[in-house]
Amino acid sequence: MPAEIFNPNPVVFSTSKSGKKPDLPPHSVWISDDPESGENDADEVVEAIDQEEIFDLIRSIYDPEHPNTLEELRVVSAPQITIGQNHVKVEFTPTVPHCGMSTLIVHSTRLSTSPSVFFCVGLLTFEYDALLPGLCIRVRLLRSLPERFKVDIFVKPGSHQSENAVNKQLNDKERVAAALENPVLLDTVEQCLVNAGARGNPV
Amino acid sequence: MADISNDRTSLINVVKALGEYLTSEESELLQKVLTSMGKPFLDGYTTLADGEKDPRNLMIAFAIARVILIEFDISQHTETMFNILFCYFPITFRPPPNDRYGITTDDLRTSLRRCLGATPAFGPLAIPVFLEKLTAGSRATKKDTLQTMAFCFPVYGSALGRAHARKLWNALKLEIFQPVDLQTEEEALRATQVLVKTIYADEEAAVESNDDVHGLARDACEECIQILKEPEKNQANAAIKILCSFISTTPSVSRYTISQAVPHLVKLFHNPDEAPTRVATLTLLAELLLAARDSQVKSRTSEAEPAVLHYKDEVLGVFTVGLQSTTLRVAALPGLKAMASTDRLLTDEELGFIVHRVGGVIESDLDGFEEASETILDLLTTISDRAPRHIFEQTLPLLFKSLPDKAPSREATAEREKCWQVLSALQTLCIQQELFENLVIRLTTKLDLICLPSHGSNGTIKDLELDAAFAHMILKTLAQTLLTKVKAGHPDVPKYVDQLLPRIFDIFISSAVLSTEQPMIATNSRLLNVAAEIITLVLQSLPPSRQQSYSMGLSKAIMDGDTTDIAQDFQKKSSARKLDFFGSSTMNERNLLALLAAAVIPLHKEVHLPIGDLDGFLDTLLAFVTEKADTDLQRLSALHMLSSILNRRADELSSFLQDKLNNFWDREVSDRSVSVQRRKSAIQAWTWISKALLVRKHPLAMNFAERLFDVFGDETIGWDAARAMGDIPAHDSVLNKANHAEIKILYVQKYVNTILPRLIQLARDANSPAERTAALVALTSVIKSIPRAAYIHEMPSLMPSFCYGALICPMPDIRCSVIDTFLAAAEGETPEKNMVSEHSSTLVNAMLRNIRAEKMASTKVRISALRYLGGLPSIVRYDILHPYKPTVLRELAKTLDDPKRSVRKAAVDARTNWFKYKG
């Protein structure tokens, strides 16, 4: 863990419960006899990917600095996600408007001997606190959304001092790919994603 | 090496025997002698034990050390003993992979801990060691150290605790405020709690007022209160946990903590500047109250007044204010629940007041109710245990009032949802006796209104399906509530044989009879099924004697169609026509057999249904099944009845059984000239006869079951026979313990041992492809219905057939159960030891074929395949599966765009696992 935590006592918000399946299925006047078999097995109804589903994918990502999820810290929220035909836009709010995790990464990458590390450190400047949650969201969506979607990830306007730099780096394919070449960084990201599958349910 | 170690073991065993002898009571004299020669003995012993490394010897050495520390005078040797023991702390031993001696890390930890905490003399030396290990250690060390501290503090005593309180607190609080994980946090809290208890236990008598609490408890409390000034922050949670742990230490500390924390939070809540943090404040306050309640239960001071009694009014005020606001409600309800469930805290009027306020919430704001309904119901259920009157008088009328007398129209989805919501709320709430009685009265009246419109009503064509669905909801509510009560063993269930069943029978019988004149809704088979469920539940709870008298009326209904005894008022409502189920009757009338079967199913063995000639009656039922029955409901009802009677009275029925084996099979099943439908019905009947015999391990059970093999090669009914094979051992809702069926243990094993090898062999080398496929169908069907332990030993020989099944079998439900079998078999598998490694490439390909929506229409199959695919990385070694990683990731990427949400979810999870899959 980092020697210095930049926001040791963040505000924790209560989280909403993830949706429970209703007993009364849509398009039916009957309640289902058996809650397990409520689903029509081979019907043709298409359930499109929506805001809630994308939020479910990222809500349980851990914050790199705290044992809390991005949802608990209100880094992400459902209304901050917009979805179009083949386009997803995710806005997020860093917990503090200045640098944070930067020291950790720079420090620990120096210990590593891989040449790609220095390359990465050159690319990703000092905005890791905002970059790292953003990077985690990016990786999670990269792995979980169909390829047809173009995903844009932005810091909430006015919530971070180096907003433009962060946005630019998060949406630059090359830089993201390069950053993920760094084993230490990738490991940190994996750590944050470890319970992302919980989708807002307690682990 | 081994010899030396063995020598040491025997040497140490000698000393141990000596030690044991020393502590036994009759050796007082010897003990005196030995303790007097203590010093040379101890000198020798310390040299002997120093530097021991073998875990077996250490276990003995620690046991001896504890005896020495307790029984001997060690004042001269404290430091030596300390050194030879504390050098092992913390234990980092890990047993080798093929450990023969079975000594675990925890064994060593606990026995060392018992030494470290054997004498107070270690205290001053030990505390610095603990502090050092705590700050420097790994997770495991931290946990061990914290547990050891909690074990040792009471032994080391209050004076030492007090002297080191500050240092210890500083170290402990770090583990609580910045915990490495939840477990460490818990252990740290416990260690803190023990420390406080140790320090304050002996001055308990001296403390008269809160001003007398000094030292650690006061300082820590103040520190926490400071942090609580920002209740919305992360650390406030840690602070409240500390305060909660203080509440269950000593009475004085508990009193002090509450006197500090509760007023502080109440004040914070009322401060207008702190309005945004009110949710957090309420949550913290509720946690405090819960801790106070639990400590009261634990200490069992039944007469003492509750710790928070003094602050009751303010706290109740805070929570009721919270209840009124939509944003605060969810946080306020747990607090109210904590108060309502604390013994002797709230008066009856105060409980009534809470119920009144909650009622206001339900009434004013149904949307708000929806959001918090679960917590609201939780609170009301808690109150209904203590004061059901308030719920009865205030809440129930409110809920019943919001139920309409007619079904909502087809477009009114929101209203329909509201109806179900109200009924679900009633279902949760009306468990308690009086409340349930009220529920039954109200709901049956409503059912009457919906199902049996008065004769005067004009016959406008209404949407009957809507009314039927509404009646179904009401019946379902009754059935679910009854089920909860039966499971909890409530004593008031039997009386509903008089108060509920006659009305149910009446509604359905009248509807069936009247349906010849006008369309009736209570002829719907879904309604009948739920009504049957209710009848079975109530009759299950009757004692045999009561069942016997009930069965008189029941048999009159079955044999003569005379329902006067079991249905109420039936004669008044329709022309007294008798029913004839097995003769001339309408379809709706024959469907009523479902209700009568439901009444026969739960009869005790001693209860003899008076039906005259038993063989004859069962044959009538069989003939009904094959010839007369025109719905599945009728067939199953007759078979359930037959199966239940046969199960109880098989001993009297040997000629009936012989006749079935000798004649019925040839006549109805294997004869190809009989119509397909009739042959299928006969197989269904065969299944239920076999089931009834199998569960009681009747000698003929296997004769019946194995007869099914004969028609595996038959194209028309082969698959039905194969499926029946699996249905026979399956658990069902008819022949079970709750229904007082005659059941012997291990009947599934008996079945599996005979059937499974034969099926496996048939699946491998059958004569015809039809037979082979049928064997495969039977295999999956059998395996689906038996517990994992019963077939797991056969799994290696099953694998090839199953891989084939998952790849080529065209039936989605067979594929689904094959994959589900894989999933069940994968439980407990590890990369080191599993059965699938050698088949893994076939399996991966089989799963990949089943995950694309274009190729596999069934959602269930896709989800099962994805789940299995996602599980493979955790049970197969990386070096075996890694060539497939790119392919799997690519294929899964396509499934991420599946039209179904649940499939996408499974795909995301599977893909995540494959991304993480590394060497």
TrEMBL record, chain A:
InterPro entries: FSCA_dom_sf, MIP18, MIP18-like. Transmembrane segments: none annotated. One of its GO terms (cellular component) is cytosolic [4Fe-4S] assembly targeting complex. The keyword Repressor does not apply. SUPFAM superfamilies: Fe-S cluster assembly (FSCA) domain-like (SSF117916). The keyword Protein transport does not apply. Keywords: Chromosome partition. Residues 52-105 form the MIP18 family-like domain. GO terms for biological process: chromosome segregation; protein maturation. Residues 14-40 are annotated as: Disordered. It holds the Pfam family FeS_assembly_P. Belongs to the MIP18 family. This is MIP18 family-like domain-containing protein. The lineage of its organism: Eukaryota, Fungi, Dikarya, Basidiomycota, Agaricomycotina.
UniProtKB/TrEMBL annotation, chain B:
The keyword DNA repair applies. Keywords: DNA damage, DNA repair, Nucleus, Repeat. It comes from the Eukaryota. Residues 422-873 form the MMS19 C-terminal domain. One of its GO terms (biological process) is DNA repair. Belongs to the MET18/MMS19 family. This is MMS19 nucleotide excision repair protein. It comes from Agrocybe chaxingu.
